[in-house]
Design brief:
Distance between the termini: 141 Å
Subcellular location: Membrane
Strand order of the largest sheet: 4-3-5-7-6
Helix content: 55-70%
Number of strands: 7
Number of helices: 29
Family: Belongs to the dpy-19 family.
InterPro entries: Dpy-19/Dpy-19-like
Organism: Sarcophilus harrisii
Transmembrane segments: 44-66, 173-195, 215-231, 238-257, 263-281, 312-329, 341-362, 403-424, 471-487
Strand content: under 5%
Length: 662
């Protein structure tokens, strides 16, 4: 049976309400879209402006340093021999291999000359590529050969411009690191300004261009920037892989260009180890960083013909020990507090014991003693729950205020602390620490978290006030820095000097004109590096000190400044095939250092002789039987003239030719 149902009446009010709610939702969507698109546009604009400023300030820093170098030496106007002499000590030695590769008839013959070198150390054939980190010189020499630039760019300028270009990359990497930490490129700008105005403590590239650190530190800065980005949470898989690739490439290049890379990366590994044990970093990413360090060093080891100093490094032993210890303690971050503390202490002991065992075994197996001088130096100085990306932040409480210590911040903070300790122990390492402190200090001034904490402490916190402080204080500091230091920088750029070392120039010209090309020269290792670069003569010793045999040889050559008989000195020098010996008055009559720190004093102590001049001596030191050789030889007594004939002298140098006794 069919029934007819009355049609339900549609109320106009309900339809109106439904339409109104739909319109409100659409309006809300439009507003959100506008906000997000506005934020997206602002982010793109900020990245564009910030990136452009970073590249520009890196380029300007490079130009600034290159101009200082030119103004200090008048490099473009001086002679070639003067340019080469300006590369002092080990700088000249490294540059000589770049020159040697360019002068070789072919690239293959250049490689052969480096692998079978018999001019760097007399009476020895050594592999320069195995002994020293000079692949950068090899690469540049090949690049200069193949590029069509020979007609308008001299080899020396191609070399120094490359180094100054790396400084642009260095400053840009510092800029990016500070930007990543603070979230604003204003922090990077402040870091770059501080780097430049503290140039004396951040770099010495303008007067020691070929030093290994000037090649390596720019890559190290890139590595730190990449690690800082890697430690950000919620990275996309592709982005994370590309960042790991950047970390690997920069780590490899850093390792390839500096012989002290292993000690820098050991400090880095300690930072990662400490923060990982404290559950402040994601374990997976830390493991990747350990593997990257070891892989980079092993690749460098292969390129350097299995350099034993790399195989016996503490870094490889430590990283392998950490990875091995983890296989035995997979649940290190779970359990109660005391349970975790016990497992952590056992983990520390296990890693320490494994590191000592592995390192001792490798050094005994390889009979490695190349780096023992570094540890002797350090002894003399000191005497003596699972983490995921979404939860990898630590909270530091201070009353009612909380500051979030993010993984990247924690890493850079610990990095600064450990490298600060290294800088205080070794002056050369201050250039590594001060540049990083410029980054961390600028981050502190531009950090939202720190300003939020400070404002909450004085009960003045509001989001707007925090943003105002975050941006206004750095801008005011930048204005002050420009006002304070800009006139001085301009005055420095307008100050013109000229290279002037006529005695050394005269010596090098005399050697080239008056000695056989195969002649062997002995003298101070600093001067001999210049002799090799300027004249191509064979050396008895040189400044690259990472070889025990060379250290012993240098000590014996330096007996020319000790209290030894002419017969003893002659016998020592002849054992190295010496034809000529160069004596320097600046060493023989040194007055710069205090008693006990001069080279001649160190030689006297090593030989068991009483030091010159008034002052205390150790009770086991005795008066020498002979006068000081470098002083007495100038009297031209028969006992000396029988073995040595003076063939050149000026106000600084005295050159003696050794007699050829049958």
């Amino acid at each position: 049976m069919t029934t007819i149902r009355q049609r339900k009446e549609i109320k106009i009010a309900e339809v109106y309400e439904d339409n109104a709610s739909q319109e409100e939702e659409e309006e809300l969507e439009r507003q959100l879209l506008t906000v997000y698109s506005g934020k997206g546009l602002w982010k793109i604009l900020s990245l564009t402006v910030g990136g452009t400023i970073g590249l520009c300030i890196g380029f300007l820093t490079s130009v600034y340093l290159a101009t200082l170098h030119e103004n200090d030496l008048w490099f473009s106007n001086i002679k070639e021999v003067e340019r080469e002499i300006s590369f002092r000590t080990e700088c000249g030695l490294y540059y000589s291999y770049y020159k040697q590769m360019l002068q070789a008839p072919t690239i293959s013959k250049g490689f052969h000359g480096l692998i079978y070198d018999n001019k760097t150390e007399s009476m020895r054939t050594i592999n320069i590529l195995e002994r020293m980190n000079i692949y950068q010189e090899v690469f540049l020499s090949i690049l200069y050969r193949v590029l069509p630039i020979q007609t308008y760019l001299e080899p020396v300028y191609f070399y120094i411009y490359t180094l100054f270009g790396l400084q642009a990359m260095y400053v840009t990497a510092l800029y990016v690191t500070s930007w990543l930490l603070s979230g604003t490129w204003l922090s990077g700008l402040l870091a770059a300004f501080w780097y430049v105005i503290n140039r004396i403590d951040t770099t010495r590239v303008e007067f020691t261009i070929p030093l290994r650190e000037n090649w390596a530190l720019p890559f190290f800065a890139v590595q730190i920037a990449a690690i800082t980005y890697l430690l950000k949470p919620h990275l996309q898989p592709l982005c994370e892989k590309l960042t790991l690739l950047a970390v690997f490439i920069s780590t490899f290049l850093f390792s390839l260009t500096w012989q002290f890379n292993q000690f820098m990366m050991l400090m880095q590994s300690l930072v990662l180890f400490i923060l990982d044990c404290l559950n402040m970093l994601p374990t997976t990413k830390v493991t990747w960083l350990y593997v990257i360090q070891v892989t980079s060093l092993l690749l460098v080891c292969v390129l350097q013909f299995f350099n034993s100093m790399i195989l016996g490094s503490l870094l490889i032993s430590f990283n392998f020990s950490v990875l091995i210890a983890r296989t035995f303690q997979k649940n290190l971050k779970t359990g109660s507090f005391f349970n975790r503390l016990w497992k952590l202490l056992f983990h520390l002991a296990l890693v320490l014991c494994l590191t000592i065992f592995l390192n001792s075994f490798i050094k005994q197996f390889l009979n490695l003693k190349s780096d023992e001088h570094i540890f002797k130096f350090l002894k003399a100085k000191f005497g003596f729950g699972a983490t995921s990306d979404s939860t990898n932040v630590q909270y530091l409480h201070k009353g009612r205020c909380t500051i979030i210590l993010k993984p990247g911040t924690a890493y850079n903070l610990m990095h600064s602390i450990l490298f600060g300790c290294l800088a205080f122990s070794t002056m050369r390492m201050k250039y590594l620490w001060t540049s990083h402190m410029c980054v961390f200090a600028s981050f502190g001034l531009c950090s939202s978290d720190i300003w939020e904490l400070l404002l909450k402490l004085v009960h003045l916190y509001t989001p707007k006030r925090m943003k105002m402080m975050k941006y206004s204080i750095p801008v005011l500091i930048l204005i002050y820095l420009c006002y304070k230091f800009w006139p001085g920088m301009m005055a420095e750029l307008s100050e013109l000097r000229e290279f002037y070392d006529p005695d050394t120039v005269e010596l090098m010209n005399w050697i080239k004109s008056n000695t056989p090309k195969k002649a062997v020269f002995a003298g101070s290792m600093q001067l001999l590096a210049g002799v090799k670069l300027c004249t191509g003569r064979t050396l008895t010793n040189h400044p690259h000190y990472e070889d025990k045999g060379l250290r012993e040889r240098t000590k014996e050559v330096y007996q020319i400044y000790a209290k030894r008989s002419p017969e003893e000195v002659y016998s020592l020098l002849k054992s190295f095939g010496t034809d000529y010996v160069i004596l320097e008055d600046s060493i023989c009559y040194e007055r710069r250092h205090s008693r006990g720190c001069r080279l001649r004093d160190l030689l006297d102590i090593a030989n068991g002789h009483v030091m010159d001049g008034p002052g205390e001596n150790d009770p086991d030191l005795k008066p020498a039987k002979h006068p000081r050789f470098c002083e007495e030889i100038k009297r031209n007594l028969p006992s000396y003239s029988a073995h040595f004939t003076r063939v050149f002298q000026n106000k600084t140098f005295h050159v003696y030719k050794l007699s050829r006794h049958k």
